Amino acid sequence: MTSRDMTAANIEALAALFPNVVTENIDIEGNLKSSVDFDLLRQEVSDHIVEGPQERYQLDWPGKRAAAFAANAPIAKTLRPMREESVNFETTKNLFIEGDNLDALKLLQESYLGKVKLIYIDPPYNTGNDFVYADDFAESTAEYLAKSEQVSEAGERLVSNSESNGRFHSDWLSMMYSRLKLARNLLTDDGVIIVAIGDQELANLRNLMDMVFGGENFLSNVVWQGRAKNDARFSAGGIDYMLIFGRNRGALVGKDARWKEPKKGYSLVVSAVRECWERAKGDAELATRLLREWWKTSPDTEKGLQSYSEIDSNGRAYLRGPLASPNPRENLKYEILHPESFKPVPMHPNGWRYSRETMDHLLADGRIVFGKDEMTSPRRKMYLDEQDDQAIRSLIVKERAPASEALNRLLDGKFFDYPKDVDVLATWIRAVTQDSNDALVMDFFGGSGSTAHAVMNLNADDGGTRRFILVQLPEELDAAAQQEGYSTIADVARERLRRVATQLSRPAAGKSSGLQDPGFRSLSIDTTSKTDTLRSAGVLQQLDIELLESSIKPDRTGEDLLFQSMLDAGLELSLPITREERDGFEIYDVEEGALIMCCRSRGKKLSLSLSLSLSLSLSPELVRELAARQPLRMVFLDEEFEHDAARINAEQIFRELSPLTEVKAI
User: Fold this and answer.
1) What is the largest distance, in Å, between two alpha-carbon atoms of the chain?
2) Whole-prediction pTM
């Protein structure tokens, strides 16, 4: 009988924004309660590393603060289009980003905030080796011991039992922490993230994801049993895991999300039922005997399907399901009469599973199976053709070798040792996106491209329009792969997607069309397209002035500038783009006026001399024509105007003809 606890409400609000700052402590009465770690909160809103107490209830490791700082620190980078590496650049909705995924996640924060339905990642397992990422925090044993206070400044060991191997745990956690923090922002409210992991970091990853996503948003831990080793010492091994978290578990429950998968061997059983019915020529009893004989052959199916061992007079296989209510309810207690003796049949103490009205409908439809007399409780018919799927299983038993062999055949060579099984990925992608087959799926440890391959397969199978964003570091391959024409992992992944797209673009048997979107727009991470022209008067030389007149780097094309402008505006990078030329200028139109950019025709590189470029300036007539289109955003290059008065005049033209347009000069 008190007013609302505003402190608790504020903690809940902070937890929604920053789940990692909420911890536990003990109140004056000795009870555990939620509280805010203000040192971590200060770190979230600080542009520098914040020092604070080291002991608290949380997952901690040397380098954690630096990793949090790395996630929040801005970068001066952009995404540049790679048309020659793309497929259907103009029309595709898919993205392939080449570069460090930490940079990619930062660059995508505005354009894809809250838009990704599913993130699947298979990060590098912690095998004790250094990582190839620029922020890998890789350090020597000496550096780790000093940071973790296991040695003094003089190098004397302060602990008797060094845990120097733990530096690899710290490295790995630092690498993952910053990326998971940024990835969380991209998920929709009902979004899901799946992280594949091995034994080495399973416990740490679970704690890390509890910290980043909130333990209440844990959904499942899937176990994947691959090939076992009979010569293993303690267990056969061969197990990987997939930790699954939701962005907001409550949103998934509120939408009544239920992940399903096809029952193994379902089509095989359906075919057997059809054959038994045809052989029995409409005799339900004979068809049932034939079906039960078929089940004795031990067909390879889901065990639950074996319960469908009867065929009714309509030729439909069924099992006898329960009619008892799981909980006692008075309104579910009523009489049901046997159809022949017209006497009440036994009722479960809790009552029936359905209301009187629903039960009457089931009786009328012939879905209730009675015994020979009123002494036997009736059962409900559960038809096979209405039960083609099941709750998705959290145990996968599947060899990994077939996935490797399939990829080797596709690429005409072996370039990856342990590619993920496309069918397994497709099962989970289908389950998570079953209510939105146009969902956006992301994998920022793209590897060989298995996730994108699975998305393409699903779309070709069910006609969906799921989109993908793949991010892969251009990690160099060995000499053998380079002899085949592949320099990096990203090269191989793109070639894989091209070949998959070619295969799936041909209509399969029984389908009117193939894959609707077989392309991808390839982009690369690079330094910003803008030139750093800031110089102090003391270091500026007369001859340098001409070099600093342009604010754009000379090797950047109009499309390069366009994509940086799209990032700045927070627009999706897969939006359709049209290009036209007028009076020596390129005009790019994104999504019919979401953004229009006008700049000099640059070709592949800026080849115009300074004197020639100055002779080309925006005319008031062209500015008026652009303003008449009334775009939401208009981008010019400042250097395209002959002088400041011309730029001010252009802004005035837009105020008159298109006052709602946001005009920007870069």
Assistant:
1) 111
2) 0.79
